[in-house]
């Protein structure tokens, strides 16, 4: 990646709030982004996921009353916004002061901003789609998806010991591995709605384990990295 390129990155809620807020991860992320932004001149748009915060609110509400999908989605969206404010505060010295919700808002932000934080917008998809939509609007061709796994697998490795890691896959084959539709709380390496949009837009997604940020650094510097490339 060139230093002038704006990097769109989705940070999974499972990294920010795996159970309690992971301050070690946040400190490591801050150090890497600071170095890349201030020393290497890169620009970042970071979209926050909801994590355990979202699921706890969703599960609590569902225990008390019957919920519609929109209800679940809205709680997830607000969890991403809370996590987004956490990230914006951590990067306050170099971050744009307003958190982006509607992807169209990115068009109103100066390209000189070093770090821009974004979060969920409307029901019907995850923050993965918002990352793709923001990438489309700024004409970025690559999106980084930080999660808590090393690779995309043929199945969930937590439940299927025969699941095989994938290092490189095209969107058409990847979409056969995931559900066809979005559902609130869906556990999928990448949101099906976002996968369809990325395929249509010719956007490459790099799935990288956020707990191994040296692999993110390798990807940023066009070096071999542990992770999965999904592309057209």
TrEMBL record:
It comes from the Bacteria. InterPro entries: AceGlu_kinase-like_sf (IPR036393), Asp/Glu/Uridylate_kinase (IPR001048), Uridylate_kinase_arch/spir (IPR011818). Keywords: ATP-binding, Cytoplasm, Kinase, Nucleotide-binding, Pyrimidine biosynthesis, Transferase. Its EC number is 2.7.4.22. GO terms for molecular function: ATP binding; UMP kinase activity. Residues 6-205 form the Aspartate/glutamate/uridylate kinase domain. Pathway: Pyrimidine metabolism; CTP biosynthesis via de novo pathway; UDP from UMP (UMPK route): step 1/1. GO terms for biological process: UDP biosynthetic process. It is an enzyme of class 2 (transferase). It holds the Pfam family AA_kinase. Belongs to the UMP kinase family. This is UMP kinase. It comes from Candidatus Kaiserbacteria bacterium RIFOXYD1_FULL_42_15. The lineage of its organism: Bacteria, Candidatus Kaiseribacteriota.
């Amino acid at each position: 990646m060139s230093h002038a390129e704006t990097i769109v990155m989705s940070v999974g809620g499972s990294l920010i709030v795996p159970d309690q807020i992971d301050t070690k991860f946040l400190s490591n992320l801050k150090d890497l982004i600071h170095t890349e932004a201030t020393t290497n001149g890169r620009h970042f748009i970071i979209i926050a996921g909801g994590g355990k915060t979202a699921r706890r609110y969703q599960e609590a509400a569902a225990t008390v009353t019957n919920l519609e999908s929109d209800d679940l989605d809205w709680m997830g969206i607000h969890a991403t916004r809370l996590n987004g404010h956490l990230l914006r505060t951590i990067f306050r010295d170099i971050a744009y002061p307003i958190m982006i919700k509607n992807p169209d808002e990115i068009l109103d932000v100066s390209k000189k901003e070093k770090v821009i934080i974004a979060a969920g917008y409307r029901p019907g998809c995850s923050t993965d789609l918002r990352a793709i939509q923001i990438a489309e609007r700024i004409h970025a061709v690559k999106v980084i998806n930080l999660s808590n796994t090393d690779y995309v697998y043929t199945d969930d490795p937590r439940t299927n010991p025969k699941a095989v890691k994938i290092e490189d896959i095209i969107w058409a084959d990847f979409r056969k591995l995931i559900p066809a539709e979005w559902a609130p709380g869906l556990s999928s390496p990448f949101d099906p709605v976002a996968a369809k949009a990325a395929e249509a837009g010719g956007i490459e997604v790099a799935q990288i384990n956020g707990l191994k940020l040296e692999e993110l650094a390798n990807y940023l510097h066009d070096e071999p990295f542990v992770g999965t490339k999904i592309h057209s």
